[in-house]
Amino acid sequence: MKEIVEHITKALVDYPEEIEVTEQEEEGNLVINLRVAREDLGKIIGRQGRLIQSIRTIVYAAAKNQEQNINLRLEE
Fold first, then answer.
1. In total, how many domains does the chain have?
2. What are phi and psi of 62, to 5 degrees?
3. Do 23 and 1 contact (CB within 8 A), yes or no?
4. At 30, is the secondary structure helix, strand, or coil?
5. What are phi and psi of 36, to 5 degrees?
6. DSSP readout, 47-75?
7. How far apart (Å, rounded) are the C-alpha atoms in residues 15 and 30?
């Protein structure tokens, strides 16, 4: 899952070298933390949060095949 998030976000930002994606286990769920450069936050969030929601939808759909619960967090 980490690779999917990283691949999608690198195509969208101006500073792909500053992308940091980490995974951790919390209460039986996989949590993916996404950190991008401050200048790229707006590009990842998109208008009214539509872009980050689309990324979450893709990740959740991929996780459904693996029968995992995933939470994608965008960090500053």
1. 1
2. -65, -35
3. yes
4. strand
5. -130, 170
6. GGGHHHHHHHHHHHHHHHHTT--EEEEEE
7. 26
Q: Please give the model's pTM, rounded to 2 decimal places.
A: 0.85
Residue 40's domain comprises 2-75
Beta bridge partners of 34: 21, 74
- pLDDT tens for 1-48 read 899 999 999 999 999 999 999 999 988 889 999 999 999 999 999 999
State the pLDDT at residue 63. Answer: 85
Q: What's phi and psi for 71, nearest 5 deg? A: -125, 125
Which residue is associated with the tokens 């996989």? 30
Check which CATH number belongs to the domain holding 30 and give it.
Answer: 3.30.300.20
Whether the predicted pLDDT of 68 surpasses 90: no
Mean pLDDT for 50-58 is 94
| C-beta of residue 23 within 8 angstroms of C-beta of residue 30 | yes
